[in-house]
Amino acid sequence: MILVVGGAGYIGSHTIKEILSKGYEVVVLDNLSTGHKESLDSRVQFVEGNLGNEELLDHVFTTYSIEAVMHFAANSLVGESVQDPAKYYTNNVAATLTLLQKMKEYNVSNFIFSSTAATYGIPETTPITETTPVAPINPYGRSKLMVEHMLEDFHAAYGMNYVALRYFNAAGAYETGEIGEDHTPESHLIPIVLQHLLGQRGTISVFGTDYHTADGTCIRDYIHVTDLAKAHVLSLESLLNGKNTNAIYNLGTGKGYSVREIIETCEDVTGMKATIIEADRRAGDPDELVASADKIYRELGWTPEYSLERIIESAWNWHRSHPAGFKVTQ
Ligand SMILES: NC(=O)c1ccc[n+]([C@@H]2O[C@H](COP(=O)([O-])OP(=O)(O)OC[C@H]3O[C@@H](n4cnc5c(N)ncnc54)[C@H](O)[C@@H]3O)[C@@H](O)[C@H]2O)c1
Ligand SMILES: O=c1ccn([C@@H]2O[C@H](COP(=O)(O)OP(=O)(O)O[C@H]3O[C@H](CO)[C@@H](O)[C@H](O)[C@H]3O)[C@@H](O)[C@H]2O)c(=O)[nH]1
């Protein structure tokens, strides 16, 4: 059985679909702080509660025969992490340490971790490889890097095997449209643009038009959530079959798109016109973040399948059919 911590969230719920399709059983631990019970596949077992709760973890590890843990649970708003770093170090670092200690106690030694491109901070070169120096510039990125360091040390000292996946910008929705992204507040560009086109937001603010990029707006690498999910399954199998014991991989497409290009592609996909406002830069946004995902291709054969158009089409399918997110009953 695979324990998916944070499985009621956006990326976790999509990854569960892929894990189940490979025949594994899943138990989810989630406190529903940002996740949605409605996003959970009916085949999973669900335990509601906090991952930092030792008694609850005792219950989970004694009730289920866990062979690996996937850990998606975290707070992940960069701005909030600057305002309230204690929340980030408590939930993303301290609670994760409790989980790792319990895994050690119960001899569960396979761990897959949701890390982030935010560990690189403002990189000097592009595309970013796993050997590009890490230098996070906010508490969110630092909290993720701290867990990566813990994993390195737990691997060396206790034989904990892990894969840390540094996601670039997760986007899109499940192909059937039954689950998708539903964050409150929503901070991510693509859902914001689509919500605007659905009439749910008056305008879109473009944060900064004087970056060192061709059109002056920030460039990011948008990766479909199902492509991310498939990388998790390959990582899981590489741990279970002993091919991997400790690895860090970037997960991106290798293609960068500017904020303006994203808005234009949303307009093309929907056939609608957006109203934009050129706003100030958002603190802590690097000019350009584009991944080299060669390492995971070489080692695990992973390659992303979704183009930007298909990412946005899938997101549009979700937002149109669920204008209020999971609050709508189908
Ligand atoms: N969305 C992105 O673009 C992106 C990019 C890089 C990294 N990440 C990382 O990927 C992971 C998943 O991101 P997401 O967008 O799916 O986030 P999300 O907020 O949708 O999902 C997180 C889930 O964890 C749960 N959770 C949080 N704290 C918990 C706790 N203490 N105990 C139990 N459950 C808890 C939430 O209820 C939620 O269901 C996060 O770790 C995030 O930092 C996301
Ligand atoms: O209303 C908006 C929202 C965003 N942006 C811009 O759009 C780009 C993408 O922003 P967003 O979708 O918020 O993603 P990122 O800030 O790039 O962060 C995501 O990608 C990171 C890795 O690259 C992860 O670490 C984070 O968790 C994840 O939220 C950035 O240049 C933003 O300034 C706007 O111009 N207007």
UniProtKB/TrEMBL annotation:
Gene3D superfamilies per the UniProt record, alphabetical: NAD(P)-binding Rossmann-like Domain, UDP-galactose 4-epimerase, domain 1
Quaternary context: Homodimer.
Domain NAD-dependent epimerase/dehydratase per the UniProt entry, residue ranges: 2-252
EC number of the protein: 5.1.3.2
Family label: Belongs to the NAD(P)-dependent epimerase/dehydratase family.
Functional pathway: Carbohydrate metabolism; galactose metabolism
Descriptive protein name: UDP-glucose 4-epimerase
Classification lineage: Bacteria, Bacillati, Bacillota, Bacilli, Bacillales
Native source species: Fictibacillus phosphorivorans
Cell membrane found in the keyword field: no
MF terms in GO: UDP-glucose 4-epimerase activity
Cofactor list: NAD(+)
